[in-house]
Structure formats: structure tokens, C-alpha cells
Amino acid sequence: MSWAEEDWTVGLSGRVLQKVKELQVLKERLSRENKQKQLQLDNTHTSLEKQTAKYEEVRGELQFVQRELQSVREEAKAAVTSKERLTQDLHIKQAQVCSLEGQLDAARNHNNHLSQEIKRLEAELEKLQNSSRLSDTTLFSTPCWSASSPWEHNGSRQEERAGQRDEGQSRGHLIR
């Protein structure tokens, strides 16, 4: 463009020529600044696109994390509900255990009472059997005044006593 500049500047005064040169220098400087500014704008635009892409990526991750968080909240809520249900079940089971322990204690007490009653009855039975033997012995120890000989009668009584004794013992075993 320098040849074109010279054509239109022919015949201009020195002062105007100097002003034209200053304006040309200014134009070139502004042109360079414009290119630098355009380059900065392009870089800023590229950076903006990268930041936008990062933003979208983070936004997607955030949505994913929010979905996970919601899922975890629902699981936690279900776990709390389950815990409450299990706690209620535990209280019910503990109440049942207490009730059964009470029944067991009552059954043990009743069993002990029955055992004592059995021992008392066995002792009473043994006393009765002993007194029955004593009374049998006293009955058979009285002299016999029958017409038969005392030896015959006495022998038959001993056999009867032995039979009664066997019966008494077998009755004692049956009761026990």
C-alpha cells in the first residue's frame, strides 16, 4: 500500500504528511491491538467452552449424586422402619419371655409342692404300712383257742402274714 499512499499524499504539506504518517502508525498499532484482542477473545471463548463443558460434567455428576443421595435416604428410611418394627417385635418377644418365665416359675413351684406332697404321702403310706404290719403281727400273736392244734393254726397264720406282707409291698411299689 505504500505506493498507493504516495499517490494520494503528493502535493500535501509537510505537516499534513507528518500527521498522515502518525495516523498510519496509529492504524497499524490499533490493527495489532485488534489482532491481540481478537486472540484474547478467541482464547476467552475457548476457555468459556471448556468451563461450560466442565460445568455440564459437574452438573451431571451432581444429578447422579443427588439420585444416589435420594436412594440412600430411602434405604435409610426403610432401615429405620425396619428397626422400629424389629424393636417392637423384640419388646413383644421380651414380654413373651417374661410371661413364659413366670409360667415356668409357677410350674416349678407347683412341681416342688407336688414333690413335697408326694414325699409326705409316701411317708404317710410307709407309716400306715408299718402300723398295718404291727397290727397284723398283734392279731396273729394272740393265742388261738380252737380245737385244732396250735401248731397247725400258727403255721397257716404265718403263711397268711407272708401273703399280706407281699401284697402290702406290691401296693407300696404301685403307689410310688
UniProtKB/TrEMBL annotation:
Pfam families: CENP-F_N. InterPro entries: Cenp-F (IPR043513), Centromere_CenpF_N (IPR018463). Keywords: Coiled coil. Residues 145-176 are annotated as: Disordered. Residues 1-160 form the Centromere protein Cenp-F N-terminal domain. Residues 154-170 have a biased composition (Basic and acidic residues). Residues 20-138 form a coiled coil. PANTHER family: CENTROMERE PROTEIN F (PTHR18874:SF10), CMF/LEK/CENP CELL DIVISION-RELATED (PTHR18874). This is Centromere protein Cenp-F N-terminal domain-containing protein. It comes from Xenoophorus captivus.
